[in-house]
Amino acid sequence: MMREIDNSKTVNSTDGAKYGNAMQHRSRVDEEHGGATSDEIVLPMLTKPNGINGSKNAVDTSPSIWFVSLLTCSVGMVIINKSLSVGFPNPNTILGFQNSASVFYLLMGSHFGLFTVVPFNWNQFKPFIWVTVNWVIMLVLSLKMLQYNSVATMVTFRAFGTVMICMVEQVVFKTRYSQNAKLAMGMLFMGSFIYASADNGFSFMGYMWASLQISSWIIQTFIEKVATVESEQTKTGVAIIRNILSLPVITVMIIGSGETGAMAELIVRRDIWTNVALSSLLGCGLGLSTSALYKSFAPTTIAVANNVGKCVSIVVGCVLFKDHLGALQILGLALSFAGSFLYGEEERKRSRR
């Protein structure tokens, strides 16, 4: 049994009351910007009035725009991170730079009224601590996975992960899907199976890192959805919180992995400056898009959107990195893409009802 919250958020009835209270609380906070609470955090770049929710210049985009942004940034991140993982194999250092830059971009955008936020307080950070820890682990595993696997292999694992997310939603959260939506999930699963059976580039280490990364991604999908929906912060505020919390975790991982000298190397490696800068911009866009979509859509829908982006990455990856695909691999990937398209059509029909 499903019901609508705030005319845009569809959740399971068992969690409806909790989500409804969270959304009502968020609405009240959005309307009350005068007077800071005792535990409010005032970030220097957010002191300008235009940076607070309600700015006339703030960006207010429709969900479809965020889907386009998610796909664009996802494709770009896969391609650039693949290149960086080979030319500069220090994933923790790259991630630290990307997330630090994201905080700077979002704070500047809020300061000049491009994005909307509400005053920060410590209670907004607490629900995202474990979300952020797993998020950082997931991103590091993604970079490690790309060191051993082709872009196509990564996409196939994502397709399999999407099916797992859909199954969890149906079994645990009692979410109902149409027969066509279930057929779409079946096509994704079959595509993954066909591809894996014909993967000439199989490597035990590659598949191990891929399995760990997808497991982390599945967990992240649900815990981030809950934390984001219940947060009183806007999508931009949530993205800022996640990136700020990630920095101490990344610092520990840099020290633990022996990458303490990598930043000095990065400074003198002018040949990768462009890729690093682009990856930070795309990472910022990806985080912001994800936060925006989690406010309104089910985890499976966002997972399928991610899968479409990764399918597009295959074409670009094959051209740039000379990845070779056999006939069965192409068939498997085609099934995965077709399943994603069919699911998207079902979601469009459901949203119109």
Give a short overview.
This protein has 353 residues and is mainly alpha-helical.
Structural class: mainly alpha
Q: Report how far the terminal alpha carbons are from each other.
A: 15 Å
Helix content: over 70%
Summarize the main sheet: 2 strands, antiparallel
Describe the structure.
The protein has 353 residues and is mainly alpha-helical. It is 73% helix and 3% strand. The protein contains 13 helices and four strands. The protein has helices at residues 13-31, 63-87, 91-111, 122-125, 129-148, 151-171, 179-197, 204-230, 235-256, 262-268, 273-294, 299-321, 327-352, and strands at residues 2-5, 9-12, 40-41, 120-121. The protein has a two-stranded antiparallel ribbon with strand order 1-2. Strands 3-4 form a two-stranded antiparallel ribbon. A hairpin with a 3-residue loop joins strand 1 (2-5) and strand 2 (9-12). Helix 2 (63-87) crosses helix 5 (129-148), helix 6 runs antiparallel to helix 7 and helix 7 (179-197) packs antiparallel against helix 13 (327-352). The longest helix has 27 residues, at 204-230. Residues 1-60 have low confidence and may be disordered.
Features:
353 residues, mainly alpha, two-stranded antiparallel sheet, 13 helices, globular, disordered N terminus
